């Protein structure tokens, strides 16, 4: 089974790199391949569907439709070398494309699974959760002296406005949460929990294919 990490290239506030989602997804995909036999690590996709971050410098986006087509074509082209494909998704904005691609690929007889990198209770974007993860995974890329609180309203309340107008409309600094008290130790703990959750999800999926 081929494991593909799907990230994004998008703003993560003034203190985190554009590649945050990609780094987290790739680290988790690598962890999965090392923990479960039968999985092989493929190349990481660093650009996804990030239209909600339009207006922030550095953000690049394929859009949902193009990303869907790209994922379907990747699955098709992997048929000669892999029994199936398992996506590790590091950016929530990729979810509609991934769901549509899995539906299309499954209808064509392909084996496709997915694991998402989020954790229940984590903040939404560039806050304490992602900042702690990055302090654990790539501290050299984190500029904590630039970290600042963003909009801390719960995502469920922000979602309608965010979907209608984008992140910049609800948070001028691009942060949804408060990264100022993030720590590498918390990031290590979060990564372990995320890794265990991903392994469980992937193992259940893999067992269902045999």
Task: Give structural notes.
- It is a single chain.
- The N and C termini lie close together (12 Å).
- With 210 residues, this protein is α/β, with parallel strands linked by helices.
- Helix 1 (20-35) crosses helix 4 (128-137), helix 1 packs across helix 7 (184-208) and helix 4 crosses helix 7 (184-208).
- Helix 3 (95-107) links the parallel strand 3 and strand 4 (112-116).
- It has one domain: Creatininase (Rossmann fold).
- The mean pLDDT is 96.
- The radius of gyration is 17 Å and the shape is globular.
- Helix content is 44%, strand content 8%.
- Strands 2-1-3-4 form a four-stranded parallel beta sheet, sandwiched between helices.
What is the spatial order of strands in the main beta sheet? Answer: 2-1-3-4
Question: What structural class do the secondary elements suggest?
Answer: alpha/beta
Biggest sheet layout: 4 strands, parallel
What is the arithmetic mean of pLDDT? 96
Helix share bin: 40-55%
Oligomer designation: single chain
Write the layout of secondary structure elements.
Blueprint: E1 2-6, H1 20-35, E2 40-41, H2 64-77, E3 85-89, H3 95-107, E4 112-116, H4 128-137, H5 155-165, H6 167-170, H7 184-208
Parallel strand pairs: 1-2, 1-3, 3-4
Keywords:
8% strand, alpha/beta, four-stranded parallel sheet, Rossmann fold, 210 residues, 4 strands
């Amino acid at each position: 089974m081929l494991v593909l990490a799907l990230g994004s290239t998008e703003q993560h506030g003034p203190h985190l790199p554009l590649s945050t989602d990609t780094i987290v997804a790739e680290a988790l995909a690598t962890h999965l391949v090392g923990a479960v036999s039968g999985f092989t690590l493929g190349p990481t996709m660093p650009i996804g569907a990030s239209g909600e971050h339009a207006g922030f410098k550095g953000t690049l986006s394929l859009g949902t439709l193009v990303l869907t087509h790209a994922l379907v074509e990747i699955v098709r082209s992997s048929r000669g070398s892999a029994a199936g494909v398992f996506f590790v998704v590091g950016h929530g904005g990729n979810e509609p494309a991934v769901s549509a691609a899995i539906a299309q690929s499954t209808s064509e007889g392909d084996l496709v699974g997915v694991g998402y990198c989020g954790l229940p209770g984590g903040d939404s974007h560039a806050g304490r959760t992602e900042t702690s993860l990055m302090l654990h995974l790539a501290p050299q890329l984190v500029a904590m002296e630039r970290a600042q609180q963003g909009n801390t309203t719960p995502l469920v309340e922000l979602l309608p406005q965010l979907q209608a107008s984008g992140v910049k409309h609800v948070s001028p600094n691009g942060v949804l949460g408060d990264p100022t008290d993030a720590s590498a130790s918390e990031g290590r703990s979060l990564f372990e929990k995320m890794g265990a959750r991903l392994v469980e999800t992937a193992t259940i999926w893999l067992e269902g294919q045999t």
